């Protein structure tokens, strides 16, 4: 565990569709007991789990916070964010968990339905229905990774037939080598060998009920309850098609006209925290030039020579993207340093 400045952190890629819960932030800020450390990706300094705690710490005036650093794969960051929010803290809503499962299916298509269900707090059958809806028409993987981390084919017949071919070509090959090459377990390879010796087909009769092979481990009643995850009791009854999410439209906000950029820059020019250091002065000069030029842009556009129009258009759009990214970065910091303003 380490202690870092609040302003060194970036907001989370949260699985919460509606963002942080303002009432929960207030409750955490009023709590007397110390809050657990938050989980942060060391590479990006982005919060994985703990935005409510971070904003509560900012609300009470703290400048630092305890963190535990995550140093795993970038592809797994959202996966960990969902898992952390399912296992403790403010529970994710049903819509949050469904949306998270759909995103995980897209980024981790080889994870089994039960493994994704355990991560997102959904029943495996619900994950299966989400997978069917979200990947309809797309090519499907022929194997899944189960909760135990082992890869299992969705259709064992393919692996069994491949094993039969290998055994026919190399009768002295070890079962372990055959299993590895065919993508099946050594026990399955042994069963294939025995079937061939009896003159039977390497593929047994199709079972009456299909199951995801990757979910077979620990598939007893106790394992099913454990794999479903928190809140899965009610969700287990929901096995139908995923209903589309509907959100009530928000009323248009009535806000005053934005201040003139020149007036805003003039106010910033008087701020000693920017005037008294070189980087701050550079920022002020950049803002000053943009504020002056903003009012002249319509006239400037008229004098751009025809052979420069395409280049100037590309440049203007690049600058617009840079300023948009700058605004988004500051917006993320504003969520952290001004939680009171964001709650009002």
Could you give a short description of this structure?
With 344 residues, the chain is α+β, with helices and mostly antiparallel strands.
Tags for this model:
single chain; 344 residues; alpha+beta; 4-stranded mixed sheet; two-stranded antiparallel sheet; 17 helices; 6 strands; elongated
Biggest sheet layout: 4 strands, mixed
Q: What coarse outline follows from CA principal-axis ratios?
A: elongated
What is the strand arrangement across the widest sheet? 1-4-2-3
| Quaternary structure state of the chains depicted | single chain
Q: Low-confidence runs (pLDDT<50, min 5 residues)?
A: 206-211, 215-248
Strand content: 5-15%
SSE series: EHEEHEHHHHEEHHHHHHHHHHH
How many DSSP-defined strands? 6
The overall pLDDT average reads 77
Provide the structure class.
Answer: alpha+beta
Distance between the termini: 33 Å
Overview of the structural elements:
The chain has 344 residues and is an alpha+beta fold. Among the domains are: 83 residues, no CATH class; 44 residues; 83 residues, no CATH class. It contains 17 helices and 6 strands. The strands form 2 sheets. A 4-stranded mixed β-sheet has the order 1-4-2-3. A two-stranded antiparallel sheet has the order 5-6. The radius of gyration is 28 Å and the shape is elongated. The two termini are 33 Å apart. About 12% of the residues have low confidence.
């Amino acid at each position: 565990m380490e202690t870092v400045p609040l302003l060194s952190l970036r907001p989370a890629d949260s699985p919460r569709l509606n963002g942080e819960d303002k009432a929960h932030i207030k409750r955490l800020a009023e709590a007397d007991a110390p809050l657990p450390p938050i989980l942060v990706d060391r590479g990006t300094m982005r919060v994985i789990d703990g935005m409510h705690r971070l904003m509560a710490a900012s609300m009470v005036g703290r400048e630092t916070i305890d963190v535990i650093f995550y140093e795993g794969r970038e592809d797994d960051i959202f996966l960990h964010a969902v898992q952390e929010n399912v296992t403790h803290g403010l529970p994710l809503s049903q819509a949050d968990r469904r949306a998270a499962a759909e995103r995980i299916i897209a980024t981790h298509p080889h994870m089994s339905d039960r493994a994704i269900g355990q991560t997102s707090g959904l029943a495996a059958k619900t994950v299966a229905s989400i997978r069917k809806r979200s990947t309809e028409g797309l090519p499907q993987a022929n194997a899944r990774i189960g909760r135990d981390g082992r890869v299992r084919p969705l259709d064992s017949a393919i692996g069994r037939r491949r094993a039969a071919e290998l055994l026919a070509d190399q009768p002295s090959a070890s079962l372990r080598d055959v299993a590895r090459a065919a993508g099946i377990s050594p026990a399955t390879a042994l069963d294939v060998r025995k079937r061939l010796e009896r003159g039977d087909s390497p593929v047994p009769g199709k079972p009456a009920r299909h199951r995801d092979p990757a979910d077979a481990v620990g598939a007893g009643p106790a394992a099913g309850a454990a794999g479903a995850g928190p809140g899965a009791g009610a969700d287990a009854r929901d096995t139908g098609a995923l209903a589309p999410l509907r959100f009530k439209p928000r009323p248009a906000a009535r806000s005053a006209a934005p201040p003139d950029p020149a007036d805003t820059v003039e106010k910033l020019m008087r701020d000693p925290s920017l005037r008294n250091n070189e980087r701050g002065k550079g920022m002020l000069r950049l803002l000053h030039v943009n504020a002056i030029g903003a009012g002249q842009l319509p006239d400037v556009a008229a004098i751009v020579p025809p052979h420069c129009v395409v280049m100037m258009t590309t440049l203007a759009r690049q600058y617009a993207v840079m300023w948009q990214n700058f605004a988004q970065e500051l917006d993320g910091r504003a969520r952290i340093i001004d939680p009171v303003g964001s709650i009002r």
